[in-house]
Write a structure and sequence with these properties.
With 302 residues, this protein is α/β, with parallel strands linked by helices. The chain has a single domain (17-298), classed as Aldolase class I (TIM Barrel). 46% of the residues lie in helices and 9% in strands. The protein is built from eleven helices and seven strands. A seven-stranded parallel β-sheet has the order 1-2-3-4-5-6-7.
Length: 302
């Protein structure tokens, strides 16, 4: 097995802010024809992590969400199911039972989500509880305060420790990019997460603004591209928070295709953390297949 050389994270990789934003603007002008658009809408639907992370979450709400995950729109049973459902650790068992017999993964946030303000042992216990309950994926948050102090070794070691506890479960590392202040910081955090063992890097918790943006996502995609070039290891990407319209989702897919290539255009390597996006995708799919827009009231909210 080849040994991966860990870079010096203190050597900042400069980011051309104007160049990043201009590239996003150019790619957003790409048009997608009808047949390709239908395929892209269905692909985006299959990439969603349907999520409920509220203090009022109940077993009933999670079961209802899992039902939608299995069949997003009952009048069109041919539509794909979503990639995963994402819940708090105490709801993992409920979700696993509701999704039994499907290929839909159960993801769980952990590590004192969304703040990350807890001691490492608390985060490890939180993760272990979720994994022992049956979580297929863990969405952890980094300690942004430590990162902004330049304590990069702390961030690396924490991610590596969480990864070890995950066992067979995939680890998504949430950077909370809205708090990282610069594209350079986003790039550095992305590199740290990947070299520490992240299976996915993720923009946001969805609990602060700004959450996912296309320029930030492009910076992270370029980090994934470079990491793959250096190591041969594929890492997934998950923009999360604030993506509500099908048009935006298709723009994200173009970013992925043009930056990483078609190999990343599967739910195994790209996800949307955007539950509210689901219904707009469904509305657009119905329009493409029937020629008629359905009101959003025809689609369940969970």
């Amino acid at each position: 097995m080849s040994v991966i050389s860990i870079p010096d994270f203190n050597q900042t990789i400069p980011i051309d802010k104007v160049g990043v934003e201009e590239r996003v603007s150019r790619l957003n002008k790409r048009s997608i024809k009808k047949e390709s658009k239908v395929q892209a809408l269905n692909l985006a639907l299959s990439m969603i992590d349907l999520t409920t992370l509220e203090g009022k979450d109940s077993e009933g709400k999670v079961i209802q969400m899992c039902s939608k995950a299995r069949m997003p729109y009952a009048p069109m049973p041919h539509l794909p199911s979503v990639a995963a459902v994402c819940v708090y650790p105490n709801m993992v068992t409920t979700a696993k039972k509701a999704l039994k017999g499907t290929s839909i993964n159960v993801a769980s946030v952990a590590t004192a989500f969304p703040s990350g303000m807890a001691q490492l042992q608390v985060k490890l216990d939180d993760t272990k509880f979720a994994v022992d309950s049956g979580a297929d994926e863990i969405d952890m948050v980094i300690s942004r305060g430590e990162f902004l102090k330049g304590n990069y070794n702390f961030i690396f070691d924490e991610i590596a420790a969480i990864k070890e506890v995950c066992g067979e479960a995939h680890l998504k590392v949430i950077l909370e990019t809205g708090e990282l202040e610069t594209y350079e910081n986003v790039r550095t955090a992305s590199d740290i997460a990947m070299y520490a063992g992240a299976d996915f890097i993720k923009t946001s918790t969805g609990k602060i603004s700004p959450a996912a943006t296309q320029p930030v996502t492009l910076v992270m995609l370029e980090a994934i591209r470079d990491f793959y070039g250096d190591t041969g290891i594929m890492v997934g990407m998950k923009p999360a928070g604030g993506i509500r319209k099908a048009k935006e989702a298709l723009q994200y897919l173009v970013l992925v295709k043009e930056t990483l290539g078609a190999a990343w255009l599967t739910p195994d390597w790209f996800r949307f953390g955007a539950s509210s996006l689901t219904n707009d995708l469904l509305m657009q799919i119905v329009k493409q297949e029937t020629g008629v827009y359905q009101s959003l009231h025809y689609f369940s909210e969970d």
